[in-house]
Amino acid sequence: MSITRRQRTAIVIVVLVGLPLFVLAVGAGWFWWQVGACGGGGTQTAMQVERGWGIPKIGDELHKQGFVGNSLVFSVYARLNGDTSFEAGTYKFKKHSCVRDVVRVLKAGPQIDYTQITIPPGLWMKEVAQRVAKLPGRNAQALLEASENNAVRSVFEPAGTNNLEGLLWPDTYKIAAEEDEIDILKTMAQLFDKRAASLGVGLANVQGYGPYDIIKIASLIEAEAKVNSDRPLIASVIYNRLAQHMNLQIDATLIYARGNPALRTLSDKDKLINSPYNTYTHPGLPPTPIAAVSVASLEAALHPAQTSYLYYVVIDKTGKHAFATTLQEQEQNIAIAHRNGVG
For residue 202, what is the DSSP state? Predict the structure, then answer.
């Protein structure tokens, strides 16, 4: 039986139309099989998605590590679901997972493994860096450099200043594995900005001293005070001495000028240290704060007690200070301190 011309034409049309449809159907079937095809499962394995990785790069890495069968299928499926990027971090997948399951995990966000770090008030920047360096993969020098090269800035940091000393908030922080030294520093500085602003530091003016100087004064109070009730009184001494153009003569600034936070004893020779932080020889406030400050110290610097005091000395072993208006009164307090076994 011979095929007529009309029949041949019909066959050609069927082939021309049907073959692409068949190929398309097979391709679509293969695609959705890949999307839903799951392997044997087993234990989950971690994979790190780095910052800046686009969908194709993530797909390549998923395929390379055996989590999906085809990186292109992953890329197409992710985009069909409206996903053009995923958050950097650590994710856990099973080998030979369904593409849809992998995308579901990625959309949920990374699994964050936190480590904690506590920064108490009174720490110097180098001490903060030493604590950060105890976290896996962190480096003290990297944090110190970031604190001085404008990689991170506080809103309270004046123009021309590139030093975050005293501008990190003391607190307990949860640090994620992917956070580097700059991220950690940024978190601490941003929390300082927020908390200090909430206390009114940003708009403050105390006896002619603006926000950054107030933070300096708070850091001096933090370094000197041992008893909370002394803080407003120490603040009053600082403001009174500044008003009378007297050198502050604060021992904590000498310790800071010497550069070793672990060495707290001082000698008369230390009072001759050539440093702008030496408040025995340099008038006014030091160039920067000298330590992380607490709420109590900031509030004392913002609201000093109204006194005529110009001197103070630790009077007993509890750390309580005695205050004096005249040098004679100060010498009497020093004598009492010596009888109490301090000073």
Answer: G
Where are the chain's structural domains?
Answer: 5-108, 114-198, 201-309
CATH topology of domain 5-108: Dna Ligase; domain 1 (3.30.1490)
Distances (CA, A) of 3 to 9, 10, 13, 19, 285: 10, 11, 15, 21, 106
Structure confidence at residue 2 (pLDDT): 57
Q: Which amino acid is at 282?
A: H
* Dihedrals phi, psi of 203, to nearest 5 degrees: -110, 10
Report strand pairing: 321-324 vs 311-314. Answer: antiparallel
CA end-to-end distance (rounded Å), the chain? 123
Provide the token pair at 98: 């369904």
Most confident of 19-33, 66-80, 211-225: 211-225
- pTM over 0.85, yes/no: no
Give the tokens for residue 189: 């500085």
Report residue 90: phi and psi, to 5°: -100, 130
Which residues, listed in sequence order, are joined to residue 117 by a DSSP beta bridge? 173
Amino acid in position 87: E
Q: How far, CA to CA in Å, does 210 sit from each of 60, 157, 225, 252, 338?
A: 55, 12, 22, 22, 38
CA distance 257 to 89: 41
Place of tokens 């695609």: 31
DSSP result, 256-268: HHHT-TT-----G
Mean pLDDT to the nearest integer, 255-272: 87
- Give the tokens for residue 287: 């160039």
d(CA 69, CA 127): 49
